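Changelog note: in this version the structure field was regenerated for every chain. One regenerated record is shown below for reference.
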Amino acid sequence: MSQHRIECTVNGEAQSVEVPARRLLSDFLRDDLHLTGTKRGCETGICGACSVLVDGEVVKSCLKLAVQVQGCEITTVEGLSNGDQLHPLQESFMQCGGLQCGYCTPGFLMTSCAMLKNNPQPTADEVRHGLNGNLCRCTGYTQIVESILTAAEKMHGN
């Protein structure tokens, strides 16, 4: 299989890596860069566990080839925190019980991050609508919505 060199920025660090032509972005992040916060879930784009930000937009990394991120800036869940300082979304998910098993949490965090960037003070209905591409089998979503609204308050106030 042919190899392609891709150069991109992942969580603020420049990367230059040779990958097979058919390498999925999710596999590139997990296997080549060892950023295992991005989860492999359904591998059909339905569950959202593999969601990352590519140039600030939510992307399901199981549906994108690594070669398609040439020159792009990628943020994974590992890139949300600043050293030991958690992102307000991460703090709120812990405080409000927005996670149980945690498998879907990275995808929810990345989707929520983009949502709050585009809508800093969403309503509960807007949050629910914004999360329609992410699935959770444990929480019933109530605490996830509460977590996002709490983070929005911390980040942007009333």
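Spot check on this record: The radius of gyration is 16 Å. The helical segments are 25-32, 88-96, 105-118, 124-130, 142-156.
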